Amino acid sequence: MKLTGTLPGGYWDDSGQLHRDYELSMLRGEEEELLAATGADSAHRVSAVLARCLRRIGTLTRVDEHLTGALLVADRQYLLLHLRQAAFGDRVRAELICPWPRCGQRMSIDLSLADVPVTGLQAGPPPYTMTLSVHAAPDRPPVQREVLFRLPTGADQAAVGPLLAANPAAALSELLNRCVVRVGESGTPHIATAELTPRARAEIEAAMADVAPHVEDTMDTTCVECGRTVIIPFDLQRIFFGDLRADRDLLYREVHYLAFHYHWAERDIMAMTRDKRRAYIDLLAGEIDRLNDGV
Question: Which residues have CB under 8 Å from 170's CB, separation 6+?
């Protein structure tokens, strides 16, 4: 089974052509195992899995980790969203505590991934231009307040990932350094961004957010106890990885079950999708029941 769709952002090639429609194959056991691995950088794992599952983006049929790492962050999240829907279904269930002080009751939520808001790219090809306000750069003339930037990609996530846990502020600064092409007439963005005021940095980040495609990371629900609206943080990547880690032992049991009864090689079973593995397991279970009943 193949999944098709249109990326909210898309990939601009060197000739300026935008590639947005895609063809995606379902996860096999090999990809499930890779995504469920612990101790490995998640951005690298996502790039590797998308390189295996993407059959094409637009007219580009040679999809490797360099290409999937060059995809915009929102596009990578969008592809994970579709892989998660195909592997585990559309529903996400969780429990949390109502944050309102006078309530604090436990809530059970049931969300649909189809309801996750997605915003498309709001501009043409990069780089993008914005001008810092006088308040953000009071000592700079207008020509020196112009900023050229691009949007963060999977490769940027991988680069700042090691910094993120130890020093989130340093990780955000490095991300800004990587995405700012030029400040004013400076040819050294890293030096120029280091000299920016906090307000200037905030204005650049806001300009990036205005342009970038976006897969919403919060969703609204209603507490059944107090009736108030509750905003739920929605980390798709964490949910997806959590699903796969919870199912990793089940994956190995399925491989063992099929290998034990059919004498298939592990690599052949791991090359199957979840649906195909379970179809064989259901057939095998039915046959074992029939034999045990003497039918």
Answer: 163
Contact 116, 215 (CB under 8 A): yes
Per-residue pLDDT of 241-252, as tens digits, reads 555 555 667 777
Q: What is the mean pLDDT of the chain?
A: 82
Which of 245, 270, 243 lies closest to 258 in space, CA to CA?
270
CA 69 to chain centre: 11
Average pLDDT, stretch 99-103?
Answer: 75
- Quick one: average pLDDT of 24-51? 79
What count of Cα atoms within 13 Å lies in the side-chain half-sphere of residue 226?
Answer: 15
State the amino acid at position 118 in one-letter form. Answer: V
- Cα distance between residue 282 and residue 199, in whole Å: 60
Question: H or E segment at 294?
Answer: none
pLDDT at 75 over 80: yes
Q: At what angle do helices 236-262 and 29-36 cross, to 10 degrees?
A: 130
* pLDDT of amino acid 236: 62
CA 83, 13, 19: angle at the middle one, nearest 5? Answer: 45
pLDDT single digits (tens) 205-258: 999 999 999 887 777 777 777 777 777 666 666 665 555 555 667 777 888 878
Identify the sign of the CA torsion 259, 262, 263, 269: negative
C-beta of residue 162 within 8 angstroms of C-beta of residue 41 = yes
Domain boundaries, the chain: 128-212, 249-288
The residues with which 220 forms a beta bridge, in sequence order, are 231
pLDDT tens per residue, range 107-126: 777 777 787 888 999 888 99
Q: Which residues contact 96 (CB under 8 A, 6 or more apart)?
A: 106, 107, 109, 230, 232
Q: Crossing angle for the helix pair 236-262 and 274-292, nearest 10 degrees?
A: 40
* Cα 40-46-50 angle, rounded to 5 deg: 140
